[in-house]
Amino acid sequence: MELLERKIIEEGHVLSESVLKVDSFLNHQIDPELMKQIGDEFAGRFADKGITKVLTLESSGIAPAQMTALTLRVPAVFARKRKSLTLNQHLFTAEVHSFTKDTTNEISVSKDYLTAQDRVLILDDFLANGQAAQGLMNLVEQSGASLAGIAIVIEKGFQEGGRYLREQGVHVESLATIESLKERKVTFQREEKFL
Length: 195
Ligand code: 5GP
Hints:
The protein is α/β, with parallel strands linked by helices.
């Protein structure tokens, strides 16, 4: 997606060879116009998949998930990050190790908002090693819902998550795939290498 790539080049900060900061439009301040275009793009790519719900993880997935859900005319649900185990029987829970924070969160979603009748599109801001996506897939599995696919705003193609998910047969769509962050420079991947 050209507009997204342009934003990344113009406003992104390469913090290290593996971390990109995009606080000016996605992770802190949000560009609603860009989010709308991202939502329309994902909605188009998954238009014929019978999606009933878009599932993301708080907080940075919420803006693009909401816009995708708006265009698909379905609800968006965000899994919450919880600090400790609380004995709430009405939740699906899974563990997710955070790539950027190096912490493990328990994520959860209410059984009211994910059911066996749902066909779910998982969406997240970044795909690195695939931990967040796996955690969300775990919640979908527990609910008995079916997985339509995974929508990723920015995939880091040099990390393992994308290949791992596609090898499992999951339909993954990314709007910008980064090949390298070496020498403080963002290089995009121009062809799909994992199909
Ligand atoms: P994964 O679970 O695939 O290893 O990492 C994805 C999660 O970590 C995303 O939810 C995102 O919040 C965070 N993340 C991973 N890499 C980056 C990055 O380079 N920049 C930012 N801003 N977040 C990242």
